């Protein structure tokens, strides 16, 4: 337990260093600062990956407890942002996305949900493990899609006000922001759908037909419907980029509400 707590601290420190160098690069473009921010972020990813490998070698199944699920969510954010940073060099997006990842790591360290042994034992199955992994991967994709949407709304507002400042020059084009938000959502929706199918199969086996009245399941189905509606509107061309971005932000707020339900004792998902 002490070694694990120390490991969390170490990740927080190098995460903070990455953000500090990234912020300095945003304020005053600096190739050296940008490089250090990237290297520290890689160190965060390596440390988190090593953590999961270590847990696996001990015979423990990570991602199933509240602590590990938040760590996995942060790892997924870091993984996707590293790929995007290398391929497209969207430094402002990477900084904004990793602010969320850092906040998640901090919550993981200081406000770690407790998980009782009575719940941990029956949940250690391959089916539920894959379910939880897919859910948090989908949540990570939706989070990054929301970051792109927020940047779109900010950039669109600055353009309408004709504020041609240094901040606006660091923004990708509005078209690029909207397309990336759409693509990440397009990946997240089928992933969440598959995760829900696996979760419903497991729930039927363990809980019985009454699981349909579980608030978390109802909320998850609503979230899936909201994001599916986003894809429909994007595909049909019924909404413009601004409307789609606001809907993306609203959908993410519903994810936050749904996650809080799972930790409020109202659902058998409290173990998450």
TrEMBL record:
PANTHER family: HEME EXPORTER PROTEIN C, PROTEIN HEMX
Pfam families named in the record: Cytochrom_C_asm
Protein name: HemX protein
Source organism of this protein record: Marininema halotolerans
GO terms for biological process, alphabetical: cytochrome complex assembly
Membrane topology field: Multi-pass membrane protein
Keyword Transmembrane helix: yes
Major subcellular location class: membrane
Keywords assigned: Membrane, Transmembrane, Transmembrane helix
GO terms for MF: heme binding
Span of domain Cytochrome c assembly protein: 68-264
Source organism phylogeny: Bacteria, Bacillati, Bacillota, Bacilli, Bacillales
Source superkingdom: Bacteria
């Amino acid at each position: 337990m002490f070694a694990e707590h120390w490991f969390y601290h170490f990740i927080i420190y190098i995460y903070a260093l990455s953000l500090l160098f990234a912020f300095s690069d945003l304020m005053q473009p600096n190739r050296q600062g940008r490089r250090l921010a990237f290297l520290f972020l890689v160190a965060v990813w390596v440390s988190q990956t090593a953590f999961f490998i270590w847990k696996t070698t001990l015979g423990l199944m990570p991602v199933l407890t509240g602590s590990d699920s938040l760590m996995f969510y942060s790892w997924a954010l870091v993984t996707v942002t590293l790929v995007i940073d290398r391929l497209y060099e969207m430094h402002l997006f990477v900084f904004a996305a990793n602010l969320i990842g850092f906040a998640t790591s901090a919550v993981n360290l200081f406000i770690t949900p407790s998980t009782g042994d009575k719940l941990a034992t029956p949940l250690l199955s391959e089916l539920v493990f894959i379910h939880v992994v897919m859910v948090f991967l989908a949540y990570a994709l939706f989070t990054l899609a929301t970051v792109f949407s927020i940047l779109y709304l900010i950039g669109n507002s600055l353009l309408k006000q004709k504020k041609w400042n240094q901040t606006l020059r660091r923004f990708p084009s509005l078209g690029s922001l909207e397309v990336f938000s759409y693509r990440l959502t397009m990946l997240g929706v089928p992933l969440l759908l598959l995760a829900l199918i696996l979760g419903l199969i497991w729930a039927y086996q363990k809980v019985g037909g009454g699981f349909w009245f579980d608030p978390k399941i109802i909320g998850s189905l609503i979230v899936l419907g909201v994001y599916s509606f986003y894809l429909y509107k994007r595909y049909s061309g019924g909404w413009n980029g601004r409307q789609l971005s606001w809907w993306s932000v609203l959908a993410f707020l519903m994810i936050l509400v749904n996650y809080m339900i799972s930790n409020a004792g109202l659902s058998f998902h409290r173990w998450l």
